[in-house]
Amino acid sequence: xxxxxAIIVISSVTTSAFAQQQSSxxxxxxxxGRAIYVRSQPSWTEHGFGRFDVGAKxxxxxxxxxxxxxxxxxxxxxxxxxxxxxDGVARHEPSGTVGSRAGLVQGFFDLFxxxxxxxxxxxxxxxxRENVDLLWTSPYTITYSxxxxxxxxxxxxxxxxxxxxxxxxxxxGATAFRGNDTMGTLLAGRGWTFGxxxxxxNETVALTPPDLITKPVGRDLDSRTGFSxxxxxxxxxxxxxxxxxxxxxARVLPGVPPDAPWATRFNVxxxxxxxxxxxxxxxxxxxxxxxxxxxxxxxxxxxSTAYLLVCRKQGPNRYTTRIERxxxxxxxRIPNDPYRExxxxxxxxxxxxxxxxxxxxxxxAKVDGDRPGAAAAGLDTRASGSTITVELRYRF
Length: 396
Known about the structure:
The protein is mostly beta strands. The protein has helices spanning about 1-20, 145-155, 185-190, and strands spanning about 25-40, 60-80, 80-90, 100-110, 115-120, 160-165, 170-180, 205, 210-215, 225-235, 240-245, 260-275, 280-295, 295-315, 315-330, 340-355, 360-370, 385-395. It has one domain (about 25-360, about 380-395): Beta Barrel (Porin), CATH 2.40.160.10.
């Protein structure tokens, strides 16, 4: 509550001050309180193999967890060709959660003309067709898809992105970045997960087995530049189709977490239609691999995931259903592969706009899919689970 009160005061004072001096300053924020009924083994955030951001004592146990999150960001355009942006998060999480309670999520500046935009700093790659609201939030569900949960946890480069849009219908872009050398560590260590926890800059997060950690978003480890490229076709407010490629080009050298590079590359095909219509359909498919070096050789993990989301908006209500599949396996096929998982998930959400600033939400999420590799750490391989989440969110 102290965090919420402080942010409300800061937002009102800052907005008033800039309104007098600079009309192009905008402050955005969300204050969210959630009560989550979870049936799952301990969360990955506590060194477990539970697939959610929260968990219970074991795979058969249930628990009610309170989680509070505050997000704050600003956009400032001192001139017609320059935009400065920063946003961060503060959170109250269950005791035992490994990670920072507050920190910077993005910080960048844009230089732009009518057709060109150069972005420099730390930012999200523009791949998601789900997290399309302010501060990389979703207008459809409380829990993100497996793909965007992973991106929120591990994929945030520091670099420069050049985007060219010759007309309303076609856009191409390319990114050169440093950092993100450990991208793929979490995915290999505990598989796909589901939540909305955003890793902040230089944050230490949990990794299984229980004595390990990783730093997904932080300093560069190998002085090599990663690249991403994308091509997008769009009919404004009606249809978007995009193909993107990401390769961190990490040097495959032996290392110990949190300083172990994983060479990760993947492709994302994304689509959405009807953003301005009562019914919206969105889908994404991602496939790639990540490679770790160790004395005497390398290990490569193949991964893929896909989701289909359908949302119906009726007045102040949004009703969303999302179904998805996910998988991982060792690149070299062996019997009883501990990294092999094939799972499914379904999420059903009802979001209701009480007024311009307040949104309530009710969501059910169920994940099926075990994790054989948990046995090597002496942990339960049953990684399936479910959550029922009630949320109240204030937007400013």
